[in-house]
Amino acid sequence: MYAIVRAGAKQQKVAVGDVIEIDKVSTAVGDTLTLPVVMAVDGESVTVTGLDKAAVTVEVLGAAKGPKIVIQKYKNKTGYKKRQGHRQKYTQVKVTDIKL
């Protein structure tokens, strides 16, 4: 059994026991969160509607950082150049339960 959950602006496929990274949340390590379910698949049956009460319970494992991204802008013949960096912050969570 697996489910597609919405975590922030992204959707991810999860199953019980998976460790995933979601956008940073301000929850202490060891606490639990519930993520809304968009779609659930259990063997042959696919459930898309009627998932108002469905939820995926996750346990917060800690903070993580994504890869460093370098943004460079350059305009020819004008002497304009700009360099900027970004590193996204994530929260690692472990899926503990899927309820339909």
Descriptive report:
The strands form two sheets. Strands 1, 2, 3, 4, 5, 6 and 9 form a seven-stranded antiparallel β-sheet that branches. The chain has a two-stranded antiparallel sheet with strand order 7-8. The model has no long low-confidence stretch (mean pLDDT 93). β7 and β8 form a beta hairpin. 0% of the residues lie in helices and 66% in strands. It is elongated, with a radius of gyration of 19 Å. The protein has no helices and nine strands.
List the helices and strands and how they pair.
Blueprint: E1 2-7, E2 10-14, E3 19-23, E4 32-42, E5 45-47, E6 55-65, E7 69-75, E8 80-86, E9 89-99
Antiparallel strand pairs: 1-2, 1-4, 3-9, 4-5, 4-6, 6-9, 7-8
Please supply descriptive tags for the structure shown above.
mainly beta, about 100 residues, about 65% strand
Mean residue pLDDT:
93
Distance between the termini: 11 Å
Task: Characterize the main sheet.
Answer: 7 strands, antiparallel
Q: Helical region count?
A: 0
Percent of sequence in beta strands: over 45%
Tell how many strands the DSSP assignment holds: 9
The radius of gyration over CA amounts to 19 Å
Order of helices and strands: EEEEEEEEE
Structural class: mainly beta
Low-confidence runs of at least 5 consecutive residues: none
Shape verdict: elongated
Tell me the helix content.
under 10%
